[in-house]
Amino acid sequence: MTEDIPVRATITTQEQVVEERERERTFRAAPKLNRSPLHGLWALTNRDLVKWYKNPIQLFISLIQPVVWLGLFGKALNFGAFLSGAQTQLTFGTTSYFSFLGAGMLAFIILFTAAFSGMSVVWDRRFGFMNKALSTPVGRGAIVTAKVLQAVVRSLIQAAIVLGIAVALGMDTTYFSVATVAGTFVILFLMAFGLSSLFVMLALRSSDWQTQMAVINLLNLPLLFASNAMFPVSIMPAWLQSVVKVNPVSYANDAVRQMLLGSANFPNYVVLAPLWADFAVLVGFAAILSVLGIVLSWKLLSK
Question: Is 92's pLDDT higher than 90?
Answer without folding.
Answer: no
